[in-house]
């Protein structure tokens, strides 16, 4: 229990004493936030952290995500030296094997990507792979990649070291302290309410794992985080295991395998996981596991025995089943929320919390102190999801598939199968008549190509849709084509100060007359890029801007945050109010005339006008990015049919 009372004020209050909470606290005080406070409802590491298998694999899907893990490689020994507390870091390497040609292509692509990101990775003969893993049945193995930089760490020891380092620098940690409320005012965090009292603060950082969704709602923030059951098996001693050996990744069998206390740890990311409602775990769920489920684990166990025959007669010590939180796209949440200023998120770690935690905590602390992450991390920005992706129905259907995709081959064109049909474009009925194959983008179902009568087989080779896409490109290149751009974000900016507001933030001149359009970039005070947009000036006090499909929430939040106290500007997301079709191609002028909109041909480039097509009022923009004549046609959603 805590002896000292909680302080009445702290610059930053962290919630959640797992790996990311401890790491963020440590890096906050290292950056000078000496009065930072961390609250934990039970004890440090009592959530997902304590039962993590704690694999640390360097390679991720982007360079900046990879750099977060590479940061750990030097950070672990530095932290040990600073605090005198071991982290359990061992650089044992990892071995990825392939048993079919597509998987071999996949791991060789990963090898190339690793080298591009500055990580050592080497293709090795099957015979060498067998020498590195003597217990492995390699009869069906056709290739392997060796990654010597990878390793493992002790999650509990790492958190103890982080907590010790943070407290040595002045931070305070309060265990057995539950958060029961978060006060906000005028769209900003004001205080955290605990069972021991209230802490006024300038910022809150939420790192509470599978409890984050509920706690975020107390601050008026919606986040898409939901847990799945997650399994690994521990055996007794296995003959042939001496010392520490590399982690074996047999992803076609959905497995990773490594030594553990003279035996083996057999972990899996099965093709379809099992979601679980956090409410069913109970408020006191800490240092606990879920019931064993051998029926669910059996297929992976059979795969493991086929790969490691010695497992057939090994003693089973425990089948661990612990909840792990996931997001709809398999990447975590790191950064400030869109809804509430000063409310930061570090959660939904998708089973890479311990591997990424040190670097992610550093990046999150940097974001809180400096207003931005040390490098661009759009794939982790919490504002990348629409509100529709935060519902229990969507999450409970999606996250089991997310768990399974951890080890799936990343073919080009791969799409999610679950939680589809959340948002249809206004012209969806027409596209379905044309047998469109849809992809999901920011919840929208958007046509990827047409004349599709089945789900195409994914491959690294020439895809089934190659000829169809060729036909569509040629149609636009030689004749005319329609492009559905209805999913583009549309933000109305109006008020007496709309012009000066945009002119201050944009690189291009926004002081143009009504009827004119501007293509421009948004830059921050550091002179770096925030977004690009097309702005239509509708009147002296009104602009309608078009931003990227997946960035509308982020761009709207950023724009709102730039408003000065005395500026009279109102911003509103009007994406769903308008459909947008682009007409482009060398015959687009003829098409415009044939549909009774000849005046479009008289419209100057980067100008807009009102017209009527088929009895529908249309706001037409003379703009095209395909090198030919073209217009973007904006009209009320209910007129799309």
Radius of gyration: 27 Å
What oligomeric assembly is this protein in? single chain
Helix segment tally: 14
Structural class designation: alpha+beta
**What's the overall geometry?**
globular
Sheet with the most strands, sense and barrel status: 9 strands, mixed
Low-confidence stretches: none
Number of strands: 32
Please estimate the helix content. 25-40%
How much of the polypeptide forms β-strand, as a percent range? 25-35%
Distance between the termini: 64 Å
In short:
By secondary structure, the protein is of the alpha+beta class. It is built from 14 helices and 32 strands.
Structure description:
The chain is built from 14 helices and 32 strands. It has 641 residues and is of the alpha+beta class. Strands 4, 5, 6, 12, 13, 14, 15, 16 and 17 form a nine-stranded mixed β-sheet that branches. Strands 1, 2, 8, 9, 10, 11, 18 and 19 form an eight-stranded mixed β-sheet that branches. Strands 23-29-32-31-30 form a five-stranded antiparallel β-sheet. Helix 1 runs parallel beside helix 5, helix 1 (19-30) runs parallel beside helix 8 (353-370) and helix 2 (63-83) crosses helix 5. It starts with 8 loop residues before the first strand and ends in a 5-residue tail after the last strand. The model has no long low-confidence stretch (mean pLDDT 96).
What descriptive keywords fit this protein?
single chain, 641 residues, alpha+beta, eight-stranded mixed sheet
Set down the secondary structure blueprint.
Layout: E1 9-15, H1 19-30, E2 37-39, E3 55-56, H2 63-83, E4 94-98, H3 101-116, E5 122-124, H4 126-132, E6 143-147, E7 151-152, H5 155-168, E8 172-174, E9 179-185, E10 188-194, E11 197-206, H6 212-217, E12 226-235, E13 247-250, E14 255-260, E15 263-268, E16 274-275, H7 294-307, E17 316-326, E18 333-336, E19 343-347, H8 353-370, H9 392-405, E20 423-424, H10 428-433, E21 437-441, E22 444-449, H11 466-478, E23 481-484, E24 489-494, H12 498-505, E25 517-523, E26 529-539, E27 542-547, H13 552-562, E28 570-573, E29 578-584, H14 588-594, E30 608-613, E31 616-622, E32 630-636
Parallel strand pairs: 1-2, 1-11, 2-8, 4-13, 11-19, 20-22
Antiparallel strand pairs: 3-7, 4-6, 5-6, 9-10, 10-11, 12-15, 12-16, 12-17, 13-14, 14-15, 18-19, 21-22, 23-29, 24-27, 24-28, 25-26, 26-27, 29-32, 30-31, 31-32
């Amino acid at each position: 229990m805590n002896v000292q009372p909680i302080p009445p004020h702290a610059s930053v209050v962290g919630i959640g004493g797992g790996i990311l909470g401890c790491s963020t606290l440590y890096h906050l005080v290292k950056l000078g936030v000496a009065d930072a406070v961390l609250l934990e409802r039970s004890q440090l590491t009592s959530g997902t952290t304590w039962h993590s298998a704690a694999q640390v694999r360097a390679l991720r899907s982007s360079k900046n995500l990879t750099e977060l893990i590479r940061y750990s490689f030097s950070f672990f020994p530095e932290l040990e030296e600073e605090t005198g507390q071991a982290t359990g870091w061992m650089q044992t390497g990892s071995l990825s094997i392939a048993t079919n040609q597509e998987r071999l292509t996949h791991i060789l692509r990963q090898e190339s990507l690793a080298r591009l990101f500055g990580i050592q990775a080497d293709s090795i003969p099957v015979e060498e792979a067998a020498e590195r893993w003597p217990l492995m049945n390699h009869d069906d193995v056709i290739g392997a990649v060796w990654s010597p930089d990878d390793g493992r760490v002790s999650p509990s020891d790492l958190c103890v070291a982080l907590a010790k380092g943070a407290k040595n620098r002045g931070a305070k940690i309060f265990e057995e302290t539950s958060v029961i409320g978060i006060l906000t005012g005028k769209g900003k965090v004001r205080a955290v309410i605990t069972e021991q009292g209230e802490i006024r603060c300038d910022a809150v950082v939420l790192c509470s794992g599978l409890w984050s969704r509920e706690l975020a709602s107390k601050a008026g923030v919606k986040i898409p985080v939901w847990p799945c059951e997650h399994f690994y098996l521990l055996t007794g001693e296995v003959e042939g295991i001496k010392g520490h050996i590399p982690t074996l990744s047999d992803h076609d069998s959905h497995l990773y395998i490594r030594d553990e206390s003279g035996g083996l740890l057999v972990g899996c990311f099965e093709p379809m996981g099992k979601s679980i409602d956090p409410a069913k775990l109970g408020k006191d769920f800490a240092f606990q596991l879920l019931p064993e489920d051998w029926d669910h684990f059996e297929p992976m166990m059979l795969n493991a025995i086929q790969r490691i025959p010695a497992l057939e007669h090994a003693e089973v010590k425990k089948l661990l089943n612990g909840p792990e939180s996931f997001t709809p796209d398999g990447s975590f949440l790191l950064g400030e929320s869109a809804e509430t200023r000063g409310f930061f998120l570090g959660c939904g770690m998708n089973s890479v919390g311990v591997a990424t935690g040190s670097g992610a905590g550093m990046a999150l602390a940097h974001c809180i102190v400096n207003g931005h992450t040390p490098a661009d991390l759009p794939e982790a920005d919490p504002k990348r999801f629409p509100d529709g992706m935060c519902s229990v129905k969507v999450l409970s259907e999606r996250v089991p598939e997310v768990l399974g995709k951890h080890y799936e081959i990343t073919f080009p064109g791969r799409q999610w199968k679950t939680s589809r049909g959340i948002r249809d474009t206004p012209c969806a009925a027409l596209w379905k008549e044309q047998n469109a194959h849809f992809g999901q983008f920011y919840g929208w179902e958007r046509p990827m190509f047409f004349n599709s009568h089945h789900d195409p087989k994914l491959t690294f080779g020439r895809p089934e849709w190659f000829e169809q896409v060729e036909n569509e490109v040629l149609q636009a290149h030689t004749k005319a084509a329609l492009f559905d751009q209805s999913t583009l974000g549309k933000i109305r900016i109006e008020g007496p100060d709309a012009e000066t507001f945009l002119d201050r933030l944009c690189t291009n001149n926004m002081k143009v007359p009504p009827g004119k359009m501007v293509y421009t970039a948004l830059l921050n005070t550091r002179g770096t890029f925030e977004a690009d947009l097309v702005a239509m000036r509708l009147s002296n006090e009104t602009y309608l801007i078009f931003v990227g499909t997946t960035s509308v929430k982020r761009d709207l939040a950023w724009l709102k945050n730039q408003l000065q106290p005395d500026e009279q500007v109102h911003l509103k997301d009007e994406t769903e109010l308008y459909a947008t079709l682009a007409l482009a191609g060398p015959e687009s002028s003829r098409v415009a005339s044939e549909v009774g909109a000849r005046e479009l041909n008289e419209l100057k480039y980067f100008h807009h006008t009102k017209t009527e097509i088929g009895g529908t009022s249309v706001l037409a923009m003379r703009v095209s990015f395909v090198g030919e004549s073209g217009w973007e046609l904006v009209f009320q959603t209910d007129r799309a049919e």
